[in-house]
Amino acid sequence: MYLLAVFLLLVGTNVCLIEGNLGGGGGEGNDYTYGTQATTDTLIASETVSKPKSLLQTTTKTYTLTQAGTAKTISYIRITDLKKARGATAEITSGGVGATTVTIKFTSARGAGIKSQVVIYGA
C-alpha cells in the first residue's frame, strides 16, 4: 500500500510539472509585427488596450487608429501581449501597413482578459 501511494504521488507531481510547462505557466504570448520600421519613421501611436475578463466567455475589443490633420502612412505595427499566459490574439480587420488608418480586433482566451500594447510608426 505504501508503494502505491508513493507511485501515485510521483505520477501526480510529473503531471503537474508537465501541465505547468505546457499549459500556461510560461507561455510565449501572442506578439505580432507588421511591416518594417525605418530610421526616419516617427511614432504615430502607442497605447495599451485592455479589457477585464468575463467568466467562462471570450472577451473582444476593437482598437481603431484615426489620425487628425495630415495623416501619416503606417509603415510598422507592433502588438505585444502583456499577459503572456492566456493572452489575447490580435487581427487587423481593416487598414494597416500602407494605409493611414488601422482597425485591430483583440480576442481573449475563454475566461481571460485582454492586455496588449499597440505601437504604430509611420512617415
Task: Describe the protein in words.
The protein is of the alpha+beta class and 123 residues long. It has one domain. It has one helix and seven strands. The protein is elongated. The protein starts with a helix and ends with a strand. About 14% of the residues have low confidence.
Helix-strand blueprint:
Elements: H1 2-22, E1 32-35, E2 42-51, E3 60-65, E4 74-81, E5 89-95, E6 102-107, E7 114-122
Antiparallel strand pairs: 1-4, 2-7, 3-6, 4-7, 5-6
Summarize the structure.
With 123 residues, this protein is an alpha+beta fold. It is 17% helix and 41% strand.
The structural domain count equals 1
In total, the number of strands is 7
Distance between the termini: 72 Å
Largest sheet: 4 strands, antiparallel
Quote the average pLDDT. 83
Number of helix segments? 1
Principal-axes shape call? elongated
Q: Reading side by side through the largest sheet, how are the strands ordered?
A: 1-4-7-2
Instruction: Please identify the structural class as seen in this structure.
Output: alpha+beta
Give the DSSP E fraction (strand runs of 2 or more residues): 35-45%
Q: Residue share in helices?
A: 10-25%
Radius of gyration: 20 Å
Unreliable sequence segments: 10-26
Order of helices and strands: HEEEEEEE
